[in-house]
Hints:
Layout: E1 3-4, E2 9-12, E3 16-22, E4 32-35, E5 39-44, E6 47-52, E7 63-66, E8 70-76, H1 93-199, H2 206-231, H3 260-278, H4 294-307, H5 310-323, H6 328-340, H7 344-357, H8 366-382, H9 386-399, H10 404-423
Parallel strand pairs: 1-6
Antiparallel strand pairs: 2-3, 3-8, 4-5, 5-6, 7-8
Helix pairs in contact: 1-2, 4-5, 4-6, 5-6, 6-7, 6-8, 7-8, 8-9, 9-10
Pfam families: CS
Subcellular location: Cell projection, Neuron projection; Dynein axonemal particle; Nucleus
GO molecular function, one term: nuclear estrogen receptor binding
Amino acid sequence: MPVWLREHSWRQSLSAVYLSLPLRGARATAANIFCSEQYLKVSIPPFLFEAVLYAPIDDTNSTAKIGNGNISFTLYKKEPAMWDSLTLANADKEKLQHLRENAVLKAQEKAKEETEAKKITKQENKKYALEATMKLEEAERKRIEDLKEKERQKVTKELELWKNQQKDGDKYKSIQAREELHQEKEPLKERKNEKMNKSQIPNEGSSKTRLRSTRGCHGSCSIFSQDLKEEQLPAPRAAATIKVNFTPRVFPTALRESRVAEEEEWLHKQAEARRIINSDLSELEDLKEEEKNPDWLKDKGNKMFAMGDYLGAVNAYNLAVRLNNKLPLLYLNRAACHLKLRNLHKAIEDSSKALELLTPPVPDNENARLKAHVRRGTAFCQLELYTEGLQDYEAALKIDPKNKIIEKDAEKIRQLIQGTMQSS
């Protein structure tokens, strides 16, 4: 049951209104402040304050400060003027209800516009980042191509220079060989001439000259054979097998193509999961290896929930959470079990934890976030905290505006809040 704040003090100038609300004995909880052009609402359990302002204000630049058991508002006027009172006088309930609904609709439209603007800005930033990355990659590709071209030209020049040196060396060798051959032919010609001269002498010396000539031939042949042996190429090397050893890695990709930081994080998570599973838990001693899987335990809890065994489902979800506390569906399903068992505070905790893990909000987790808001709102309403419950139902309506069931439940909660306000 909320306690309405009747005591407040205010003062004004031509451009601003200064409002002060005392919070005597309030708990240290988060304050829920809703401010529009002409409607102000403050909810700090168990206190509640609501005011329809005398004239429109600039809700964007207006500020609120909480401290020392007091809330201080600085509300800037849209038009400079002195107000006769802080709130509208003689306003009936229908007009107040109309102003409240308009304020909520404007706030929703404004939030939607801000979300769209952020989305457009994010897309533009992504586009700019992509273009900048493409330009950098193109520049890097061009730089690499230039380096390759320079290296290609350098290697081509070195190859041409080596070919020219080889040609010069071959020419020099051929000239040297001709000179050596010419030098060897000259004594042969002289001996031949001597032989011709001696052939004119009688037969007595003919045999001797023949022997000498043959000996000279044998001598010249041995010289040529020695030169040929010196010019022979060395024998080819023996064939062999070269063994290449690679460093063993967990991932099949090459080290230059892998992302080391992400792989190390994945390995760390796997080691932590194995350590938790292999730790000395009494619940795991009698379980099979496949029963230590959090997904298997989640499916088992779902089957128990469908059969009406809510306590068994809670135990299955508890063990799955101990094995892996990063799965939002485990907390979401356990919150449904706690609702059935009337463990309302635990249902609120599990729903809040599921919403914390379901970030950032993306289209793929819309259904899970919708269920989390509805279950937490249901638990709040069963605890008679209708304001907090309405907030969750309105958040669910933002996710799925066409859901008639959630819209009807939200309308019932609004009626309950109005009845509570009228009775107080």
